[in-house]
Automatic annotation (TrEMBL), chains A, B:
Cell inner membrane keyword on record: no
Chief place where the protein resides: membrane
Species this chain originates from: Phaeobacter gallaeciensis
Name of the featured protein: Magnesium transporter MgtE
Topology within the bilayer: Multi-pass membrane protein
Length: 462, 462
């Protein structure tokens, strides 16, 4: 299936496509063990910088340090760009300063910005010092835009042409310039005041006659990105409108740079990752973080959960007398709470995603809430019957079966309602719904679940 | 901030960037109410097909049908491509067959494939019948590749050149051809047997002298995609190696098509969405699905959860006598289970993501498991102290405080262990860890939590 022409040293089997080849990892570590510099360079040569970064992340800290020292001058700047933040700082500290300077000098300016953003002050300085003055100024300018903004994401090199030019003029202009960016896909047409007015793809320029005006070839979809726009919105625009590249403008609407789809794709990937981890109560971070950092990051969510769990316990303690007389209630009550929690998580995840993709708006919020409540009602009724039977068969009490059934319906309806209303309200209050919805919704379903079940039991069974 | 040059009718404010403008939605619905065809066409004209699709998804079914009938011949095929599956079938059923035929004829072949995949047989036939014979054959060929494979994702039009050509030959060739694809970024160099051997970007061709051989300009990173590779792996390769386009080859390694980054980005987006929803126990689907479909999709996960909750209840019922004597146990036991469930979800989410991004492999799995267990231990110890105090202060029993503290440590350690081992094992067994991990891990933490807490209480308090 592989053509033998491509050379990246990853496994191409259907199951583990693009997984780092374990044998090669073992060979590399063996070369490190035997201090065999030539063999190491040889084994690493076919690997893409992204794969080398993965390799460095996956081996332990001791092997990593030895590998980097042995690899020495072969170390490429792109590997740094691809590394996880935690490992990156470690690697920079290990690298010979001269190798580091060389590695960084080869990088594109937007990659250097990406690298610098996450570093501590002294490491930032060390890298900036290694750069030539002109590069340094350009990078400091980029860093003057807010974090996570289009201004930081863009590259500053843009190929532009006056809007009145023809294909021939554009081609001659490009073929005369020696400093075209390595990757570009569009020529941006600009007005005399440098406002971008349209995009023309290189493919169209290639296939049109020389006398055709550029404006005749302009792309139908054209988006201009303000430099201070959040990168999340930039990624959304690229995905929504299938953009390949988009011009970035300053406050006065003048062209200052261009963002290409590969950067937007990386942002989309990060934002999704962040959302998934936030929904699970895990902050940002990576597999290679230390135990102490991971513990710190997981702690807050568990602490919030402890408070909500204690609140739920207080509800239970209101019914201690009832439980003392019917211990079966203690056996069954976690079922009601657990089902409510799960149904609530289902609803809130759908709502959080729909908010992120702009699919849940003022136009349909009431319809979505109604639907979630109805779904909770239907599923609640089904599980009420099931649990009613379980209650009856297990404990021989039709009243107990009825109580757990009714509590189930109540809790699943409330789960659907809270699972939608909570994220929508949080979004309105400018709190990230992915981060905070879970705690609120499970608090509601725990409290309602215990209260409905034990309260009804108190009324019916006593 | 807006330049006034771009025309897409979405709100560009910082908070709601790219959100559909509510006023425009209201105006559109008013035009539908007053049956004002000209005004409707006028209001819709500046909207991108993706925004029109969002609009159709967000209004209710009655307005949607009226809008589509009034919009009539203006309806563009691209809107269909952008619609959610559920709504898409509904819209196709409403569309005048002639309008539908026209709309589909304008689409690129890969978009038609994307459209057909999800449709029922009779609707598929209706659309295929509307196509010209040559298009029909091409589309049926694409449909012969497995679902979700690179073969379905690729476009068949490729710009290729023999590997021995110069820049001048490539330019002359392209400028003579009238049927170049609308969007292309690379010229693929091929061997005489049509095996792709390298990529050259149009930008580099533009800026090189005519006599330079194409091979001198080849991109450093070059990936060849087998046509039967899963689209998820394709998206991973694009993201990992920062590809813009990649040639697709058949079993013999011959060039059959090309995949571009915008398609890979759409797949990445879908796969992430799927992972998020699966982790929450929600199947695929969209906000616009009917109540009955949503209920069916949510039901299986809730049913699995009911079984695991009943298992946990059985553990509790083993300790009925203990609970009957110390009702405080019933009050406190959900706290231990809840903390374990949350810690387990944290660990499993990190593990599931790391598996998806190929960051968790044989090289580091033991180190990750050890880390998760240590994180569970440290957090467990902290919360053990907190809950020990709560137990003591609330119920005045140091023994009860000690029991809940020890149970907490045990359950958080088990949560870290199960949260990592379960997804890794599921992946090894080729079961999607995003889909199934949650149920297993919470079963473990529920059972261990109740057993540890109530069992210890039985030993210490009785």
């Amino acid at each position: 299936m592989s053509t033998g022409d491509e050379t990246i040293g990853t496994d191409k089997g259907q199951d583990d496509a693009y997984m780092l080849d374990r044998r090669r990892v073992a060979q590399i570590l063996y070369a490190v063990d035997t201090n065999d510099k030539a063999e190491l360079a040889n084994l690493m040569e076919p690997l893409h910088a992204a794969d080398i970064a993965d390799l460095l992340e996956q081996v332990n800290a001791y092997d990593r340090a030895r590998l980097i020292r042995l690899y020495d001058r072969e170390f490429d700047g792109e590997i740094l760009s691809e590394l996880d933040e935690a490992i990156r700082e470690e690697v920079i500290a290990i690298l010979n300063p001269q190798v580091l300077a060389e590695a960084v000098r080869d990088l594109d300016s937007d990659d250097v910005v990406d690298l610098l953003e996450d570093l501590e002050e002294p490491q930032q300085e060390a890298i900036l010092d290694a750069l030539e003055d002109s590069d340094r100024v350009a990078i400091e300018q980029s860093l003057s835009y807010p974090e996570n903004s289009a201004g930081r994401l863009m590259q500053r090199e843009v190929v532009m042409a006056p809007e009145h030019w023809t294909v021939g003029q554009a081609i001659d202009f490009m073929r005369e310039r020696s400093d075209l960016p390595a990757q570009f896909y569009h020529v941006v047409m600009v007005s005399p005041r440098l406002h971008p007015v349209g995009n023309v793809t290189l493919g169209r320029i290639m296939s049109a006659r020389r006398e055709v005006p550029l404006t005749d070839l302009r792309e139908e979809t054209f988006q201009v990105i303000p430099a201070d726009q959040d990168e999340e919105d930039v990624a959304y625009a690229f995905n929504q409108y299938h953009l390949i590249s988009a011009p970035v403008v300053d406050d006065e609407g003048r062209l200052v740079g261009v963002i290409t789809i590969d950067d937007a794709m990386a942002v989309l990937d990060e934002e999704h990752e962040e959302d998934i981890l936030r929904l699970a109560g895990v902050g940002e971070g990576s597999l290679s973080d230390r135990v102490i950092d991971t513990t710190k990051r997981r702690f807050p969510w568990l602490a919030v959960n402890l408070v909500t769990a204690v609140l739920a316990s207080m509800v239970i303690s209101m019914f201690e007398d009832t439980i003392a007389r019917f211990v079966a209630l203690a056996v069954l009550m976690p079922i009601v709470a657990s089902m409510g929690g799960n149904a609530g998580t289902q609803s809130l995840t759908v709502a959080v995603r729909a908010l992120a993709t702009r699919d849940l708006t003022g136009s349909n919020v009431w319809r979505v809430i109604r639907r979630e409540v109805l779904v909770g009602l239907v599923n609640g009724l089904i599980f009420a019957v099931v649990m009613g039977c379980v209650g009856l068969l297990w404990f021989g009490s039709p009243q107990l079966g009825a109580v757990i059934g009714v509590a189930m319906v109540i809790n699943l309806v409330v789960a659907g309602l809270a699972g939608t209303v909570v994220p929508v309200m949080l979004e309105k209050m400018n709190v990230d719904p992915a981060l905070a919805s879970g705690a609120f919704v499970t608090t509601v379903t725990d409290i309602v679940g215990f209260f409905a079940f034990l309260g009804l039991a108190g009324l019916v069974l006593l």
